[in-house]
Design brief:
The protein is mainly beta and 194 residues long. It contains 2 helices and 10 strands, in the order ααββββββββββ. It has helices spanning 2-16, 18-22; strands spanning 38-45, 55-62, 80-82, 90-94, 98-100, 103-105, 108-117, 121-127, 142-166, 174-192. Strands 1, 2, 3, 4, 5, 6, 7, 8, 9 and 10 form a 10-stranded antiparallel sheet that branches. β7 and β8 form a beta hairpin.
Length: 194
């Protein structure tokens, strides 16, 4: 309670001072904002056990916007590793052992990268490295790579999005990881490892 009162008294003293009142108003400090906000895709799995906490699969990524620019071959570079979003690396965490396409992914934390090629399409790269900036990639840390299928979208999508889409029963706990940007959507199936 004392701190707000002290700040109010200082503010009142500054406002009433004739010398300080004639000076130009102080500029607020510039805020540094990342050009792309963070976004999250989450899928929750229930175990069926009463009182057990739900299990989650989560992707946390920087969400860039195309803003009229070409996506494939420009914002997503050809034939090189892409950070799969913007800014800090795209984090992938799972509370369960998964099969992502043909890659076995033990429960834990990972980074998702992608590699776009006009000839061979999009590959999802699952890396064991975590916590790094998005452009810091080490192939030695690859857990595995899997091809993604491509579907052309009817309308261009300005914001890059990642979604974890659950499959409907009776397919069991499984789903599809989807990435969409520009005129393309890329997808790879995932399921609980049996």
């Amino acid at each position: 309670m004392r701190r707000p009162v002290a700040l109010a008294l200082v503010a009142a003293a500054v406002a009433s001072s004739p010398v300080l009142a004639q000076q130009a108003p102080a500029q607020p400090p510039a805020l540094r904002v990342a050009p792309s906000a963070r976004a999250t895709a989450v899928m929750t799995l229930t175990t069926g056990v009463r009182g057990a906490a739900p299990l989650t699969i989560k992707v946390d990524y920087g969400q860039p916007f195309a803003r009229g620019r070409k996506v494939e071959g420009e914002l997503i570079p050809n034939d090189t590793i892409w950070r799969t979003g913007a800014n800090a690396a795209t984090a992938f965490t799972t509370d369960v052992d998964l099969m992502v396409g043909t890659v076995a992914v033990p429960k834990g934390s990972y980074t998702l990268y992608t590699r776009w090629s006009p000839k061979s399409g999009m590959q999802l790269v699952i890396s064991k490295q975590t916590g790094q900036w998005g452009t810091e990639y080490s192939q030695a840390q690859d857990l595995g790579r899997v091809a993604m299928t491509r579907r052309e979208l009817a309308e261009a999508q300005d914001a890059f999005t990642i979604a974890l889409v659950p499959n409907m029963p009776p397919m069991g706990p499984s789903g599809t990881l989807r990435m969409a940007w520009g005129r393309s959507e890329f997808a790879v199936p995932f399921s609980l490892k049996q």
